[in-house]
Design brief:
The chain is α/β, with parallel strands linked by helices. About 50% of the residues lie in helices and about 15% in strands. It is built from 13 helices and twelve strands. The N terminus is likely disordered.
Length: about 350
């Protein structure tokens, strides 16, 4: 997803559980327990924001041209601008909103050309997986006779990464089929969108197609993507929303924040800046609307639907990944980040 504002089968059950951060209590907490969770969340957020290497200041204009928008996942140790699913998540919600308003499915045949134009306009496309998903993928590929000739290459993590980013043409169709299976998708937001299409308001076919187009972009032009394999387990203690103190403009300053720093781990979401960048993305998809849908909707209707659907998808992901984690707001007043009081999911 492009950089968002600075602030933060029987497989279905097992995948839903694997999406949930370890240590998350889904039961009803007492007031005392809730207060302790909020206190810990605020302490963890403060520890991160006062760590110099965990914060990087930039501008919204740089975000629009740099392709630095990442996922909200807490396992990254580099400063990010977080939005659910990163750039790929934003592309999915933009296309799903276009379908909803136009009343027609977008043409999936034109996605490769669309991704080329998107990268040319906004810079690198970020998307990620994790070591758990790639390990499961490697097992599946090694068991498939289609990949027998590269089985030894798939025996190591480095070998799997190299293969994912540069497969021979004869393997690409079969590999894409495997990459779009939920158990092989290491981004919680994208996996949940595949598993719960109705709740997310996006066709599973569309989600699979966008994931495939992102990989094909990487195969055509490796420099056009920022592909990340995150390591470790989920140990997030809070959802940190990095908020702007003023209305967001292209010249606004943005505080990128590392989700994993100072021994603490949080989800990082930048809703304000994300909303601004999303509107810019939206105008891009409207400009290419005639290539995607029979009738292009009005800008007002489309942008309203886009924001509504983005809020819905973000809410679903936070609820499913962190159902009882407190949300802590961090307000970015350069050069300082102010940690506000946390709130529980029910507040």
């Amino acid at each position: 997803m492009r950089l968002l504002p600075v602030v933060i089968a029987s497989l279905s059950l097992s995948l839903a559980l694997s999406c949930r951060p370890s240590g998350t209590d889904t039961g009803t907490s007492s007031d005392a327990a809730g207060a302790e969770l909020r206190r810990q969340a605020e302490e963890d957020a403060h520890s991160i924001v006062v760590t110099p290497e965990a914060v990087r200041w930039t501008t919204v204009a740089a975000v629009l041209g740099d392709g630095t928008e990442s996922c909200i996942d807490g396992r990254s140790d580099r400063p990010v601008l977080g939005t659910p699913g990163g750039d790929v998540g934003e592309i999915i919600v933009a296309l799903a909103a276009l379908e909803a308003v136009a009343g027609a499915h977008v043409s999936l045949d034109g996605l490769d050309a669309l991704f080329d134009e998107y990268e040319a306009s906004f810079g690198k496309v970020y998307f990620h997986t994790d070591t758990h998903a790639t390990a499961a993928l490697a097992v599946a590929l090694r068991a498939d006779p289609t990949f027998a000739e590269v089985s030894d290459e798939l025996a190591s993590a480095d070998g799997v990464r190299r293969f994912l980013l540069a497969p021979a043409p004869k393997y690409q169709a079969a590999l894409l089929e495997q990459l779009s299976r939920p158990e092989h998708v290491g981004c919680g937001h994208l996996r949940l969108a595949l598993l719960h299409a109705d709740a997310y308001g996006a066709r599973a076919e569309l989600v699979r197609a966008v994931i495939g187009a992102a990989f094909r972009l990487a195969w055509r032009d490796p420099a056009a993507v920022d592909f990340v394999i995150l390591d470790g387990e989920h140990h997030e203690t809070a959802v940190v929303e990095v908020r702007s103190p003023h209305e967001v403009h292209a010249h606004s300053r943005v505080a990128m924040l590392a989700p994993h720093a100072a021994g603490r781990t949080v989800f990082v979401h930048h809703p304000d800046i994300a909303a601004f960048v999303r509107r810019e993305n939206g105008t891009f998809f409207l400009e290419h609307g005639t290539e995607l849908v029979p009738v292009v909707p009005s800008e007002g209707r489309y942008l309203a639907k886009l924001e509504e659907l983005a809020e819905r998808q973000g809410r679903e992901t936070i609820h499913r990944l962190a159902p009882s984690l407190p949300t802590v707001q961090v307000v970015a007043h350069e050069p300082r980040l102010e940690v506000r009081a946390g709130r529980t999911a029910k507040q």
